[in-house]
Structure formats: structure tokens, C-alpha cells
TrEMBL record:
<keyword id="KW-0813">Transport</keyword>
<keyword id="KW-1133">Transmembrane helix</keyword>
<feature type="transmembrane region" description="Helical">
    <location>
        <begin position="188"/>
        <end position="209"/>
    </location>
</feature>
<comment type="similarity">
    <text>Belongs to the exbB/tolQ family.</text>
</comment>
<dbReference type="InterPro" id="IPR050790">
    <property type="entry name" value="ExbB/TolQ_transport"/>
</dbReference>
<dbReference type="GO" id="GO:0005886">
    <property type="term" value="C:plasma membrane"/>
</dbReference>
<feature type="transmembrane region" description="Helical">
    <location>
        <begin position="141"/>
        <end position="168"/>
    </location>
</feature>
<protein>
    <submittedName>
        <fullName>Outer membrane transport energization protein ExbB</fullName>
    </submittedName>
</protein>
<keyword id="KW-1003">Cell membrane</keyword>
<dbReference type="InterPro" id="IPR002898">
    <property type="entry name" value="MotA_ExbB_proton_chnl"/>
</dbReference>
<keyword id="KW-0812">Transmembrane</keyword>
<keyword id="KW-0653">Protein transport</keyword>
<feature type="transmembrane region" description="Helical">
    <location>
        <begin position="42"/>
        <end position="61"/>
    </location>
</feature>
<dbReference type="GO" id="GO:0017038">
    <property type="term" value="P:protein import"/>
</dbReference>
<feature type="domain" description="MotA/TolQ/ExbB proton channel">
    <location>
        <begin position="101"/>
        <end position="221"/>
    </location>
</feature>
<keyword id="KW-0472">Membrane</keyword>
<dbReference type="Pfam" id="PF01618">
    <property type="entry name" value="MotA_ExbB"/>
</dbReference>
Length: 236
């Protein structure tokens, strides 16, 4: 009898598990749908927040690949230029800089075109070209900083609108229940979370690109100093 009871208990447990598995799958599917629908419940404030997200992603990757290309360092460039200059082949050195298609190459090319003039003039030409190259690298990076500040503010606006919605529904219905305040709470929490999340991403992206630009600037300054020393070397 005891064995029969144990067998019946196991069979009932197996049936319960079989019935529970499909239900759990349905619950999981509903939760996935709810996650997507929550974003819609954030209201119209989610539209500008979404635009900031796409704008930030575009700017980050566009600048990332541009700066990465500019950071491509050719170790033999300065050495080859030195060989051309010492051999008196300025045209070959200028062509080499032009073919490098890098910020440092364009800076050195500007200096080579000024050879024969005082060193101060050459340094000024290289410095001005360097400022222009840095300006190109930093293009639109500041927009990420703006997004990092605006996105949380938009989330805060959504929070205020959600609170207003809650009190309006309560005053309109005269009831204080979960159904009455749920829509306002959805908008309040979703917009706040979305704004903070996008703001954090933009903040991180801004600092990553800034560090990359600083690294390129350091290399440009090092190579320009080596180039000026190269021009002064024959006169020593």
C-alpha cells in the first residue's frame, strides 16, 4: 500500500510539472512582450530620448573609426622624410607625406613646403596645421556631451508628466487605486530610467573619444618636434 501511494504521488507530481511547463513558457513570453510595451507606455517623451540614442550611437561610431584611422602611426615616416631631406629630395618627402593621408603627414607636408624660410615660420605653419587637424578630429564630439546632459533632463520631464498624470486621474475618478496610478507610474519610471541610461552611455562615449584624440595629439606633437630637430640638425 505504501508503494502504491508513493507511485500515485509521483504520477501526480509529474502531471503537475507537465502542466506547469507550458504555463511558464506563456508567462515568459508575456514578460518579453511587456518589456517592449513598457517603452511605449513611457509616452511621447520617449521619442526625443530615442532620437538622442540613435544620434549618439551614430556620432560615436563615426568619430571612433575616423580617429582610429587618424591614429594609424607609420613608424618609418619620420625616418624616410629625414633621408629625403638629407638627400635634398624635398619633392619625394612631400609626396611621401601626401600619400600617408594622416594628420601628422599633412603637418609635416606643410613644414616641408616652408623649407628655406626661418624655423619660426616653419614651426608656425606646422602648429596652425596641427590645430586644424585637431579641430577635425574633435568634430561633433561635444554633441555627445550635450546628449549626456539633455537625456536625463528629458527623463526628468517624463517623471513630472507622469506625476501630473497620476494626480489628474485621481482627481478625475475620485479613486486612489493601482489602476488609477499605474499609467502615470509607468511613464514616470520608464522615462527616468531611459534618460539616465542614454546619458551614461553618451558620457562614457564622450570620454573614450576624448582620450583617443589626446593620444593622437601627443603623437603629433612628438613627431613635429622631431621634424623641427631634423631641420636644425644640418645647421648645427
Amino acid at each position: 500500500m505504501l508503494l502504491l501511494q508513493i507511485g500515485d504521488t509521483l504520477n501526480q507530481a509529474a502531471d503537475t510539472l507537465q502542466q506547469a511547463l507550458p504555463q511558464n513558457s506563456v508567462i515568459a513570453a508575456e514578460q518579453k512582450v511587456n518589456i517592449l510595451s513598457l517603452l511605449i507606455k513611457g509616452g511621447w517623451v520617449m521619442l526625443p530620448i530615442a532620437l538622442l540614442l540613435f544620434l549618439g550611437i551614430y556620432i560615436f561610431f563615426e568619430r571612433y573609426f575616423t580617429i582610429r584611422k587618424a591614429a594609424r602611426y607609420e613608424a618609418n615616416l619620420t625616418m624616410q622624410i629625414k633621408q629625403y631631406v638629407l638627400a635634398g629630395n624635398l619633392d619625394g618627402a612631400i609626396a611621401l607625406c601626401r600619400n600617408s593621408a594622416t594628420p601628422i603627414g599633412r603637418m609635416l607636408q606643410k613644414g616641408l613646403l616652408r623649407i628655406g624660410k626661418p624655423i619660426k615660420d616653419i614651426e608656425g605653419a606646422i602648429e596652425n596645421q596641427g590645430k586644424l587637424e585637431v579641430s577635425k578630429l574633435e568634430k561633433n564630439i561635444s554633441i555627445l556631451g550635450i546628449i549626456a546632459g539633455i537625456a536625463p533632463m528629458l527623463g526628468f520631464i517624463g517623471t513630472i508628466i507622469g506625476v501630473i498624470t497620476i494626480f489628474y486621474d485621481i482627481s478625475a475618478t475620485g479613486e486612489y487605486s493601482i489602476d488609477t496610478v499605474s499609467s502615470g507610474l509607468y511613464q514616470k519610471m520608464i522615462t527616468s530610467a531611459a534618460g539616465l541610461f542614454i546619458g551614461i552611455l553618451a558620457y562614457i562615449g564622450h570620454h573614450i573619444l576624448t582620450m583617443m584624440v589626446d593620444k593622437v595629439i601627443l603623437q603629433m606633437e612628438t613627431d613635429s618636434i622631431d621634424f623641427i630637430d631634423l631641420l636644425e640638425e644640418p645647421t648645427k
